[in-house]
């Protein structure tokens, strides 16, 4: 009889969890992940209190699972959006698709880092519970790792290849600086270690601390980079001049007439 009573209570426990805890908490998660949406989250104090009660009622594993599922769902939608940037018609220019993707990627990463900070703060008791009881990494570490796993790992090579081969100022330097710093943040310096030379152009501490014997080679690299940028700038100016001549052939004829 007791076993039957316990079994009959299971659906009620699930529905109570959904009604009293996850549904209101999910609105807060959605508001963090979609800052421009019309979702009305509950206050920080209410969220923290609900998380505290939810963990205290023994729903910590379920809450953690639902939180991870909500974030994963968001990241998978973002992945689709980024792929569409790469595959959509960009006037026959493959690089334009990558550039569009980088802009979307950068904006999404900025929003995601803010969302992670908000979620980690409001769900801090859940993170603390897992850290103490299950020897778990922090909630912030887990959420940033999810971005690397679901998003960055799939697009990092396209981004880095585009940055390496594109002429200067194809992408705004401020955007690139922010993007590389944020990639360094979510990867916990992992990408900076793997792609140290490229990251060093935008992140000051991407390379190991320089020793005295490295100074001359560093100066040579700087000179080579400056020379490369000058060559690319001259090439870009030449292309622009030729384009103007093609569009306005009368200017060239006028110059010839003067001779």
Automatic annotation (TrEMBL):
GO biological process, one term: G1/S transition of mitotic cell cycle
Family matches, as InterPro entries: CACUL1 (IPR042652), Cullin_repeat-like_dom_sf (IPR016159)
GO function terms (MF aspect): protein kinase binding
Signal peptide: none
Gene3D superfamilies tied to this protein: Cullin Repeats
Top-rank taxon, per record: Eukaryota
The protein's name: Cullin N-terminal domain-containing protein
Organism listed in the record: Megalurothrips usitatus (bean blossom thrips)
